[in-house]
Request: fold
Amino acid sequence: MRARTELLGLLLITLCSAPACAPGGLDPSPDGEEEEEVSDASEDELSEPGFDRNRVLSDAAFVDWQAMTEAEIQAFLDETPYGNRSALASYTSGGMSAARAIRVASESYRINPLVILTRLQMEQSLIGKTSASKKALDFAFGCGCPDNGSCSETWRGFHKQADCMASHMRSYLDDLEGGGTTIAGWKVGKAKKTLDPQWVTPKNMATAALYTYTPWVGSSGFGNLGHFQIWKRFAGHIGYAPIGPGGCAAVTFPSGMTVQSLPSDAMTEAYVDRLGFSSAAAPACFLDPAQLVDPTTEGTWPSSSKVSSNFAFSELIKNESSSRQVLVDPALVSTLQAMRTKVGAAISVVEAFRSPERHLDVCVACDAELPMTVGLGAIVTSSAGSQKLLDAAKTAGAPTCWARGGEVYVDLASPGRGCPSAAP
Reply:
């Protein structure tokens, strides 16, 4: 790793001439004093679900250097979220492919490769471009390129640029360890003005580091809002989310809403003891309506958040206790949305997830492994009538058990796994 004194010297260099990369060392407040935080959000912020200016990215995601292998980075460059092959896909520097240089930098400084890829798009759109000038590729992050001067040949080469960018981020994190402050004055829990100017109080180290690198809240495609938008698109492209507590994975719904699932011994035991699931088959990870946390930002989603264009998370658990963990499978959401599109009229969820205890109370005669208990079944209704719902379910590839009084039961389980009573 580069010597600490050299790193501090590098931090004083303007990383690039674009506003998104304005020097982090500038204090936008004329007297240098901090004032009370003002949290009014801009229209751009409000229109971006999940964005929190004070918590742009989670610490766990920021330092997840094992998120992508070299082969996965290469595959990302070969087929980007923009539907093209990046200009970096076949570029080499210092005897390394761009993918190798990104992987080496991320491993050397323990920074997520997705952070580097996101910055590449922010700086010079090198992910979205199919071709680029040699200078743009050789000075991808603007390291060694002051605003009003020529770029230093010392920093020519994509491999050097990737190393420079990742080392900056690592140096900021090192500064923040143990409650410290970055060279630009950013600190966790301390209010500071950006160059917009907007007040920001970083809630974690990743956010403080990002504002040190780019001291702007920004707008769509720019600043830290832009970082969040591009990151979300890139992470969605590869299905990335850091693994959570107990080895539980995140759940991503069709709307893009990503929620960290959590272990619950009590719920798992309920499936074994009350419903007769084997220990191996019983669910181990659940969604907690009181803690719908996005693992990549550590922000919290309200239960009213949309899981698809026409359905909110709360609709699928409305009959459950607010203190009970639940299961909602994204595949069921996709099916309900497909049915809604086919029917062309509003579909209402009458009943969806049933916890083990409530399932036994409501549907005594049902199969113990009813799909509704694992988030794969629902009873729906529509003003269009049950026949159109049945037709829509068939088109969506979802089995149905019955239709009654305008209500239809639909699930995604294999045939014969269980069907609720027509009169629960």
